[in-house]
Automatic annotation (TrEMBL):
<dbReference type="InterPro" id="IPR003767">
    <property type="entry name" value="Malate/L-lactate_DH-like"/>
</dbReference>
<protein>
    <submittedName>
        <fullName>Ldh family oxidoreductase</fullName>
    </submittedName>
</protein>
<dbReference type="Pfam" id="PF02615">
    <property type="entry name" value="Ldh_2"/>
</dbReference>
<dbReference type="InterPro" id="IPR043144">
    <property type="entry name" value="Mal/L-sulf/L-lact_DH-like_ah"/>
</dbReference>
<dbReference type="InterPro" id="IPR043143">
    <property type="entry name" value="Mal/L-sulf/L-lact_DH-like_NADP"/>
</dbReference>
<comment type="similarity">
    <text>Belongs to the LDH2/MDH2 oxidoreductase family.</text>
</comment>
<keyword id="KW-0560">Oxidoreductase</keyword>
<dbReference type="InterPro" id="IPR036111">
    <property type="entry name" value="Mal/L-sulfo/L-lacto_DH-like_sf"/>
</dbReference>
């Protein structure tokens, strides 16, 4: 069992903001990043909560990100919003693009935002859940760095390529899932390494193409997709929809762009929103009931819906007023304060 430190909820935001501004992010970037880290830590997402502050700091130290830049949002006609992050972090661009995306989704029934030229480190579910608060279904995806071998391959070509989806539910939390298309997220492998734990089988191969349980060998070799060729194909789709479709980099190109430096990958992001009312032939209530019947049939069997663990963690942490992180991470973050 790892030793942990308790951090009060208000202090999570203050800690993140202080670390980020001290490292050179302006207050707008710092606040959007801190809010994302807080949201993830509140739900006990250890791989993309406060732990990812380390990646944000490595990114600015690597010298390629502009932590002071203002993104430019433009109406690309009909249902497309373009958000040029201009070499900053994705989150500020997303924050500024969402109001126009909501407007367009209400107008056309379906709309998309394409973010270009962004560094990206974060979990995706807060962005789709935000849209479900508006009554929309939403999905988003991003490439990353080419750490992941395609099914049957021996070297990294694909990113860890997460996909998130959210569906609004009347009077309750949405149905949301968000996962990497690699068997493990990179962040999860990093946490295994920090904890000195072996990886389970089926997560990675070493640089000779042999299965490995060693996090160091995995990071030197290649990670594997989940679900064999199925996860691999989904991952390729994400490369295409959040890369060439929107005139941005694939995970291979992001890795080249990094020139061996550590930090967040650099690429684009696509997010699609669907206005349920405009697809349902005026029968929104009937179709809501259909969706609810589906969810009930799943949970009545004892199966759980994705995000139930997160929602329970959120309720518990809000109730007790603090989150827990490992002592090792706490010490690393303290060392980044002014
Ligand atoms: P996990 O494997 O931890 O979880 C994936 C999803 O599956 C969650 O929605 C989770 O819900 C759900 N789930 C887990 N177990 C069950 C179960 N038994 N039954 C039903 N649902 C279940 O995710 P990953 O480690 O793959 O990804 C973690 C985060 O990392 C994601 O938020 C992702 O966006 C982020 N990431 C970001 C990247 C980037 O480039 N920016 C790259 C890769 C990942 P619950 O949370 O409730 O358990
Ligand atoms: O955990 O795979 C990951 C990841 C990539 C970029 C940010 N997180």
């Amino acid at each position: 069992m790892q030793k942990t430190v308790e951090i009060e909820l208000d202090d999570v935001l203050t800690l993140a903001n202080n670390v980020l501004t001290h490292a050179g992010y302006d207050s707008a970037h710092a606040s959007s990043i801190a809010q994302m880290l807080y949201t993830c830590q509140l739900d006990d997402c250890q791989s993309h909560g406060l732990f990812r502050l380390l990646m944000c700091i490595e990114t600015i130290k690597a010298g390629k990100i502009d932590g002071q830049i203002t993104p430019v949002i433009s109406d690309a006609g009909k249902a497309i919003v373009k958000a040029d992050a201009r070499g900053g972090m994705s989150l500020l661009a997303m924050e500024k693009a969402v109001p126009l995306l909501i407007e367009k989704t209400r107008e056309f029934g379906i709309a998309a935002v394409a973010i270009n030229h962004c560094f990206h480190f974060s979990a995706l579910w807060p962005e789709v859940e935000r849209l479900s608060q508006e009554g929309f279904a939403a999905m988003t995806m991003v490439p990353s760095h080419s750490w992941v071998a395609p099914a049957g391959g021996t070297r990294g070509t694909l990113g860890t390529n997460p996909l998130a989806f959210s569906w609004p539910r009347q009077g309750g939390a949405p149905f949301t899932f968000d996962f990497a298309t690699s068997a493990f997220a990179r962040g999860e492998i990093e946490l295994y390494k920090r904890a000195g734990k072996p990886l389970p089988d089926g997560v990675a191969i070493d640089k000779y193409g042999k299965p490995t349980n060693d996090p160091d060998a995995a990071m030197e070799g290649a990670m594997l997709t989940f679900g064999s060729y199925k996860g691999s194909a989904l991952s390729i789709m994400i490369e295409l929809l959040a890369g060439p479709l929107i005139d941005d980099l694939t995970s291979l190109e992001s890795m080249e762009f990094a020139e061996g430096k550590s930090g967040a990958p650099y690429h684009g992001q696509i997010l699609l929103a669907f206005d349920l009312g405009q697809f349902s032939n005026g029968e929104l209530a009937r179709n809501d009931a259909r969706a609810e019947r589906l969810f009930a049939d799943i949970t009545e069997q004892g199966a759980r819906l994705p995000s139930q663990r997160r929602f329970a963690a959120r309720a518990r942490n809000l109730e007790r007023g603090y989150v827990e992180i490992s002592v090792g991470l706490y010490e690393d973050l303290q060392a980044l304060l002014p």
